[in-house]
Design a protein that fits this description.
By secondary structure, the chain is an all-alpha fold. It contains ten helices and no strands. The protein has helices at 23-37, 44-51, 55-59, 65-77, 90-107, 109-112, 119-129, 131-140, 147-165, 181-197.
Length: 203
């Protein structure tokens, strides 16, 4: 007697391979959705609708929303691009890192700025990208127990500017200052790090 290999499968629900799905395709679609509408708009059902598949097809590749978010963090934060030849000066290394991070945040603000409430996603992102920043601060002489706090200061500063840039731009002033507020803020923070490493921090 002939067997029926598809007997247990519900009709109208294609297997994952027939749906033409891959993890890359799912994540690319998810990122487009988050870039446009934010993480709050992301759900497995909504993602399936954007892909034109049954939600169960996605679970063959990514088991839940947390896995999708983790995949998005991997996809986006792997795109941080530092100069191929970093300067020798630690302060310029910090500037290069913060500028690269700011560029990344500008490209995907609704992901980068909204994962801050997800400790797992934040830890994953930090592990991926914070190494060069920590190395620069360590080479500057920042005490080991203060490297995380100093790195967080630069990250929060860049995030704050990216958040402000999501708002409608105000009319341009008649004359631009010689330095942007971002550059001035970086100067002030680097001076603070220099003071810390010179032993002028009394706390």
């Amino acid at each position: 007697m002939a067997t029926e290999p598809d007997k247990g499968r519900k009709r109208g629900r294609p297997a994952a391979d027939r749906a033409g799905l891959t993890a890359d395709r799912i994540l690319t679609t998810a990122l487009a959705l988050v870039d446009e509408q934010g993480l709050a708009a992301l759900s497995m059902r909504r993602l399936a609708r954007e892909l034109g598949v049954d939600p169960m097809s996605i679970y063959h590749h990514l088991p839940n929303k947390a896995a999708v978010v983790s995949g998005l963090v991997e996809l986006v934060f792997s795109r941080l691009r530092l100069p191929q030849a970093l300067p020798d000066d630690w302060a310029e290394q910090v500037r290069a890192w913060v500028n690269a991070y700011r560029d990344l945040t500008r490209r995907h603000p609704r992901l980068v700025l909204q994962i801050v409430t997800d400790p797992v996603a934040v830890a994953q992102a930090a592990e991926m990208i914070n190494g060069p920043l920590h190395a620069a601060l360590t080479s500057a002489g920042v005490p080991a127990d203060k490297v995380d706090a100093c790195a967080g200061m630069f990250v929060d500063f860049a995030n704050g500017f990216a958040l402000a840039e999501l708002e409608p731009p105000s009319p341009a002033p008649a004359a631009r200052p010689p330095q942007s507020h971002f550059d001035i803020g970086m100067d002030v923070m680097i001076l603070g790090v220099r003071a810390l490493t010179a032993g002028r921090d009394d706390r």
